[in-house]
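Co-fold these.
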Amino acid sequence: MELFLKFLTNTGFALVDYRHLIMLVVGIFFVYLAIAKKYEPLLLLPIGFGVIIGNIPFFQGFGIGIYETNSVLHYLYFGVTNGIYPSIIFLGLGAMTDFSFLLANPKLMLLGAAAQMGIFITYLSALALAFKPHEASSIAIIGGADGPTSIFLTAKLAPDLIGPVAIAAYSYMALIPIIQPPIMRLLVTQKEMKIRMPSMRTVSRKELIIFPVIGFILCTFLAPASIPLLGPFFFGNLMKESGVVNRLAATASNAIIDTATIYLGLTVGASTQGDIFLNVRSLGIFFLGAIAFSIATASGLLFAKFMNLFLKEKINPLLGAAGVSAVPGSAREVHMMGLKADPNNFLLMHAMACNSSGVIGSAVCAGILWSFLKG
Amino acid sequence: MEGQLFGLEAISHYRGWAVAATGAIIVFSGLLILSLIISQLHKLVALLEKSPQSLEDAPAEATISKASSDPLDIGSLLSHYLPLLEALDTEFQLAELYRLAQEHQLPHPHLSIRRLREADKLVFLGNGFFRYQD
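Predicted complex below.
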């Protein structure tokens, strides 16, 4: 009887408190969004189930929880806390990226740069809300709309914020269909939405091969701290474009990135244990993350309109919203918004060009912030 | 809470303005330089190949601007797409036609192929295959 009572006190039923229950509901909600609504399922399903895993109540000291050093989840979490999974994901991302539209219209790279201004404005906002500079940087990088970059920088600067930053970053990436359209409608007129982009010249294979080398060297000379992200990214792209290592490129863009995505999502979700995650700071991070996303979107849109003041061949300002690094969600939203205004206006590939520029821009921003604040 | 700074005082204390401004300028300048390099990349490639590629581009662009005068006119579309359709098999996938259109730098390939479909010039055979109907 004593043994049975001891067993009961060690079950989840006896150990649960309201914070576990709240987070279990959040995890189930994420799983619902992923499966029923198909909101970024590749991200939300692992994260959602990870939240459920991390919030099952357990007794401490037996190597079960993600924060206990001898647990399996802790070993898997190593890839997050040490920035390994983000680098691996960037390798696969590079192997899946087609830079031909960006090379054919290099102006679009500036829209990716403009969208990164949201990061620095959010940095100021976070400082104003009493976050320390390391924490403010980790929160601000959410504005880059790049989950791996957010996790990478947070792991370096403010590891205790990885949970809320990652959840905020991936949640807002999944909620792009809700966040971006109202901002696009507010800042871009119907007439501007109908601007058609010119047909692109054919980009030669040599250009596609030279670009990752030159792009990597230039970006990392500028911000060497971005080497762990941009190195694998441009290498993955070079593997794809070279045509001589198709097997490696295929592996990078399939098995490797999928494995890293699974473990990153699962462990980030599991790190959001209710007793650690649910506090005022996490709410503040969520609030600032929404600000970051919105400002980044608005920056890209407004800069595109600014560029049109000087360009003879106008850019569709909607493309500015695709300057955030949320591939391919924001490009898809821009394309859909353009189709609503003009059913014969196909913006997808132009938007993807801005997206890929945003990936580079957010990684460079992460490198710059890390170099400013390290030590 | 003791010693916590808020608002503009916190930003000034942590040199936030300098960090934000410097970071923004560096990112923007870096991507601006990269875009300028990219814009010259095709000329560099042409130079390396020692071919007059840049000269050949100019007449091709002129052809494109003439062809784009009325992208929805079927007659005009057919005059450009018939050679491509003849190069394909009798039954083909739209992706193949699209690829040829891109290689020949025809403008608005998505719109043109859609227009051809709407005009029943491209007939769907099932399993993703189409054929040209005169």
